[in-house]
Amino acid sequence: MCQKNKQEGGENVMKKRTLLAVALLSLVAFVGTAYAVTYITIASGGIGGTYYPLGGVMAEILTKAGIDVKATSRATSASRENCRLVASGRAHIGMSMGSTLYQAYTGTEAFEEDGALPLRILMHMYPAPHHIVTTKGTGITKFEDIIGKKVSVGAPGGGDQVLTNMILEAAGIDPDKDIKKQQLTQPEGVMALKDGNVDVVFWNFATPGSAVLEVAAVRDIVMIPIPQDVVDRVVEKFPFMFPYKIPKGTYPGQEEDVLTVADGNFLAVNKDMDEELAYKLVKTIIENREEIMQSIPQAEHFVPEEASIAIIPVHPGAAKYFKEHGIEVPVE
């Protein structure tokens, strides 16, 4: 009897040890699953611009999407810094204007000392078309009418002026000889156009631009299209630019689409990002377009046809998503 009790006691101890071992293994598995989360940092922009709030909304969407991602957004000085942060691994997603992203990828202009950075496109967010705006009182109705007129090309050194000069160069117009050049900031351009102190302003921003709407509130505006041959030359010489039509009805009195060129705003990632992760990120962002639009109107462009615009190679994970929608994009 004593021997039997000892045997049963030993079996109970073994059972308890086995159960304890199973419990420990289950706990380890649970902990492992709980920590199988990818932490993502989104480099956005400065407080007050579009990038900063958009980064916050994206981080929230990605975190609650059930794709094992915890995302946070950080304020930065925007495009140039973001490209460097992503290339160095200090951020995982970076928002950037196309012109800056192209320079970073090619190691040119502002990135000449950096060399070519290992960046890929996750998706195109929204376009920033160039606006050429005048008022009915000037009599200007077509692009060549700006010759000899008072034209604001944008503030010195600003993005507006850089892109304006590209367009004028492609059109064979010398801003120092062929027009009465003025270099106004956007607020200054609004006041000058409303007061009749300038005939035409060149602006670059997403539609609808508040500057244009402010002028349209007190004056009858006219949107000037860029001729097709000039658009073709701009795009050929500056590959980060692309043709774009500002849809009719975007601004008061605008009854037709207006042909222009646009710089884009992109999400960039490191070329070494995991393919499945990149796929999940772009899929989640695009499929939550409606929710993002509630805070950021520019998210209306978060559709595969526009999101697949590419000026440098697209990350293979994002390319996989676009291919599922019948869109082929450059990968290398």
TrEMBL record:
SUPFAM superfamilies: Periplasmic binding protein-like II (SSF53850). It comes from the Bacteria. It holds the Pfam family NMT1_3. InterPro entries: TRAP_TAXI (IPR011852). Gene3D superfamilies: Periplasmic binding protein-like II. PANTHER family: SLL1037 PROTEIN. This is TAXI family TRAP transporter solute-binding subunit. It comes from Acetomicrobium hydrogeniformans.
